[in-house]
Sequence to fold (847 residues):
Amino acid sequence: MRPIRNFLQKIKPHFDKGGKLEKFYPAYNAFETFFFVPGETTHTGAHIRDAVDLKRTMILVVMSLTPCLLFGMWNAGYQHYKALGITDASLLDNFIFGLKKVLPIVVVSYASGLGTEFTFAIIRKHTINEGFLVSGMLIPLVMPIDIPLWMVAVSTIFAVVIGKEVFGGTGMNVLNPALTARAFLFFAYPTKMSGNEVWINTDMAPGQQLVDGFSGATPLGDAAAGYADKIPGIWESFIGAIPGSIGETSTLACLIGAVILIYTGIGSWRIMLSVFLGGLAMSAIFNSVGANTLMQISPLHHIVLGGFAFGAVFMATDPVTAAQTNTGKYIYGFLIGMFAIMIRVVNPAYPEGMMLAILFMNVMAPLIDHYVVRANIRRRLKRVKN
Amino acid sequence: MLSLFSTFSRMLAYIKIKKGLNIKLAGEADKILTNLPLPGTIALKPTDFTGVVPGLLVSPGDEVKAGTPLFCDKNNEAVKFCSPVSGEVAEIKRGEKRKILEIKILADKEINYIPFNKADPGNLSREEVIDALLGSGVWPLIRQRPFGIIANPADKPKAVFISAFDSNPLAPDNNFMMQDCAEDFQTGLNALIKLTEGKVHLNINARVRSSDVFTSAKGVQINKFSGPHPAGNIGVQVHHIDPVNKGEVVWYISPQDVLIAGRLFNHGKFDASKTVALTGPQVKTPKYYKTIIGASVKNMIDDAGLKDGESRIISGNVLSGKQISQDGFLSFYDSHITVIPEGHVPEFIGWLKPGLDKFSVSRTFFSWLAPDKIYHFNTNMHGEERPFVVTGEYEKVFPMDIYPVQLLKSILTEDIEMMESLGIYEVVEEDFALCEFICTSKIPSQQIIRKGLDTIRKELG
Fold:
């Protein structure tokens, strides 16, 4: 600790006003505050402060994502060996295969995103905010395993620049940056983001071959194509040993993350709960109609498939892009759940509706808040009349 | 939420505050009252009074008595600020642009009072009561909402509020400080009753047995409040009993200041003595002291002793008090001094540690394992200021039907109409102190609220 402190103290003059590297102060500041919570004391208002800050909050969100990340790594290997008909792959084999595939994506996501953030901070002379710590982890988890690394980099840079920095940086963005990255790829390179060929890695060594009847589709893809018999059971889907984006498949892992987020007070239980309720309600309605395979899926089954749980726990709850009032959060969450299922079931072009539902409601969230706040204002005015 | 039932011909409201937070700070004052000799110097600080432009009425070397006006408010010259002691004006301390910071008085050993008329305020007219309060220096003790400024004698308040308990961290206990003073307290209340056509609300803590001084008070409505801080804040109490709308005014005064008003009428003198609690984790023997408005805190601090290390001395509580120097003076409205350690030391990857010794309302540090732990808070910010990111956290500690973040944002965008619609007239800085304390983004909410109130006051002219 001492040596780091001394080193930081030694190089600080270069970054201060008038120093050679003055322009790079935001970068210096980011590293200094990364290593040391500053010794800055209160000078206005309350003399004592709660120990929590944005760094702590963000690192806890990243921790709550680790069950999804670890499971996703395992599942990548599991799906790979299963596709090749290799039945004796151990837990470790599966995990190591996934680790090799996923780690580069995570590294590229963080490197390209943080690089962009640093560049912007230096140009715009603002401090580097912690928001990307979470986005950098979310982006890999919503990518298919076979995504080319350059696409990860391009979409991440797009998300940071267009999704966040043009609005003024952390706290000012309208759309969830991680979903912006995903949506960008989804529409720019649809062949790498949808269909039946991207969800399971099928790289083969000489002599290996795919098992008979392998399709590579996600359960929702199969359902959209009408193969009801190919949809895995509720339990299997809940555990998450099914094809899909890297981190989204396991509802169980998402729920572990949800428990951490809710217990620490970081994630909004109001949003999570209402997304699930909205999804259940909408799929119950469709279920009662039952006109196609997707409608026939039971409500409980719907919410353990695809990215529904992952979106509900980690994406919809992004405080910056969600509704901000408590009442608004219920409405916002419920509508996300409803729209996600509706897009899934009614629009055959998008078998996964969670991404579009959340992005759409990100845009609508300020409107919801507007009406909630209006109601408060009306209550106050009514008081005068009485 | 509001259930009304009557006892002894008085209506009694019982209000449960659910949102809020009791901060467990070390250094509560023992229930010991120490009498120290009168401090050698006392000072009035015009900066204690929001919106007052001081016009000096004395110069260094002048002899004053207790009750001699030292300065007036240039905006309203009837409002005078009088010396609490007799002695000699020692110094007018000025800051930048010759702003008056302190008017220091070298106090006599025995206080020599200007005699005022004794009277039963019940027999006086409203105007006579106001004149008596204005002429003796008692008036500035009465403040108003909105804005938290000194009451304007020309206004007709719709009600007067007295919070008989302070729920701030380590706050002094009025039930201990206000013993054997029922007569002066009742006289003070009688004067306040004259000031409004509405009710005088005396709000007591439902959770403890209140002193007879409060429970036997006559002519006022006694309301009970329960729940965590800020249940004792006047703003919260007004919000739940008789909220301030645009154009309306309520007045408020603290219980010890009611005594000062009572003593004026009973004994015919401006007797500004009060009891203060010296508290905080840096104090060796935290306890109560008998002293006077504007007293130098030095002899109290010397008596109680400070622990080693750099200390911050605060007149008032840790949430909304003002920092003063070691030989500084008690602020006009305060009956509380808190001393906490400074926290300059940077902490190596502090945001990554388990944090068993760190308090947080969130459960982001493992200190939630010990919910009853008492903390030695220091002045460290625990992070840097950031834009608003986390939502819903202020609402957990803000027990009013107001959207706190939206109100702050309307101030930041200087949208006056929106500030009014969102309820700025109901709040002052201290109502946002807990929001500021728990804020993940370290937003200076109290400063923002004052900025908003100043903007509106300028607009109203």
Summary: The CA atoms of residues 436 and 445 of chain B lie 6 Å apart. The longest strand of chain B covers residues 87-94.
